[in-house]
């Protein structure tokens, strides 16, 4: 094993993460064409509706009953970073904010003191299939930021920086969602995020390597930063000359430059990096605090306030199918990608 590589292990759902990350899930579903309710135009018989995480006929319904996805549910004390690699995600929340994002867009949401939101996957294509591929990453908040005001930002695909390297005509690329890649700076993260302080060296890079392509990853400045790479698609990926088994994660020395080389087929890798927060983590489902007493108080407050309630007509809120990508913020400001 290379001195730069600390550990290699198979990935299981959800993927193991290191502080400051709490959770990472990768979902890929091959949905059929959509029906009038924007759900699958196919029988849902034999499914555990409302708790359907098993792939059947190529797709899962998750917690949806008609539309696949995650109907409204609460969060407190951390952030979600949702990467839509393919397909459509409709966001709605208890603050009255909403959005639709898709192929390549990223939503960065700070739950802070508490928010309810839904993430539905409307099947807008009624003529052909509706493939969905997303990552959802949970990034912890330090104690001082656990109860900040909720916030969400859209990182539109067109604006996300991409670093490309070429080797004998074979291309490798890294989409820079967070954290500088050499001289390439990322878009700004949510303002109260652990990632907002560049000294914390939080990085989220989504990488693709054609067969034989090489990608040189710069090292972090601080040895405190943890770095894990998730090889989730492809075969034959080499890391520092060592072949990585398919669907494995690799913990590496973050301060070292690292060379990746594509294998026999296109390889896809996700990187998560950051300085640990180094605070106690007490989690109860969608609530992440520092003590059991804080969890108890959170549950009491949620029971009393519902974090603002649910202002939408449906638990599985889906937006106008004719509407394109957009973000409606709680202050009424609406933005669309340029």
From TrEMBL:
InterPro entries documented for this protein: Pirin, Pirin_C_dom, Pirin_N_dom, RmlC-like_jellyroll, RmlC_Cupin_sf
SUPFAM superfamilies according to UniProt: RmlC-like cupins
Residue stretches making up the Pirin N-terminal domain: 51-139
Bilayer-spanning residue ranges: none
Superkingdom of origin: Bacteria
Residues annotated as domain Pirin C-terminal: 205-308
Family in the record: Belongs to the pirin family.
This protein's name: Pirin family protein
């Amino acid at each position: 094993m290379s001195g730069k590589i600390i550990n290699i292990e198979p990935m299981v759902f959800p993927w193991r993460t290191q502080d400051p990350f709490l959770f990472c899930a990768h979902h890929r579903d091959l949905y059929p064409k959509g029906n009038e309710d924007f759900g699958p135009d196919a029988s849902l018989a034999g499914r555990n509706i409302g708790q359907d995480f098993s792939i059947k006929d190529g797709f899962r319904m998750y917690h949806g009953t008609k539309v696949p996805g995650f109907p409204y549910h609460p969060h407190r004390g951390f952030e979600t970073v949702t990467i839509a690699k393919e397909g459509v995600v409709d966001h709605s929340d208890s603050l009255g904010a909403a959005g639709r994002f898709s192929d390549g867009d990223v939503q960065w949401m700070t739950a802070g003191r508490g928010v309810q939101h839904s993430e539905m996957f409307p099947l807008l294509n009624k003529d052909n299939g509706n493939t969905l591929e997303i990552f959802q990453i949970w990034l912890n908040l330090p104690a001082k930021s656990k109860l900040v005001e909720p916030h969400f930002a859209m990182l539109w695909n067109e604006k996300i920086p991409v670093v490309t390297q070429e080797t004998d005509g074979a291309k490798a690329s890294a989409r820079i969602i967070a954290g500088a890649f050499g001289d390439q700076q990322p878009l700004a993260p949510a303002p109260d995020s652990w990632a907002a302080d560049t000294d914390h060296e939080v990085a989220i890079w989504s990488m693709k390597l054609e067969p034989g392509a090489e990608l040189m990853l710069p090292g972090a400045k601080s040895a405190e930063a943890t770095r894990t790479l998730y090889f989730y698609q492809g075969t034959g990926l080499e890391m520092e000359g060592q072949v990585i088994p398919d669907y494995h994660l690799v913990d590496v020395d973050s301060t070292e430059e690292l060379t990746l080389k594509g294998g026999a087929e296109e390889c896809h890798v996700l990187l998560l990096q950051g300085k640990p927060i180094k605070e106690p983590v007490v989690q109860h489902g969608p609530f992440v605090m520092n003590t059991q007493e804080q969890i108890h108080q959170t549950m009491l407050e949620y029971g009393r306030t519902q974090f603002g309630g649910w202002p939408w007509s449906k638990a599985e809120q889906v937006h106008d199918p004719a509407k394109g990508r957009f973000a409606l913020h709680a202050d009424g400001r609406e933005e669309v990608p340029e």
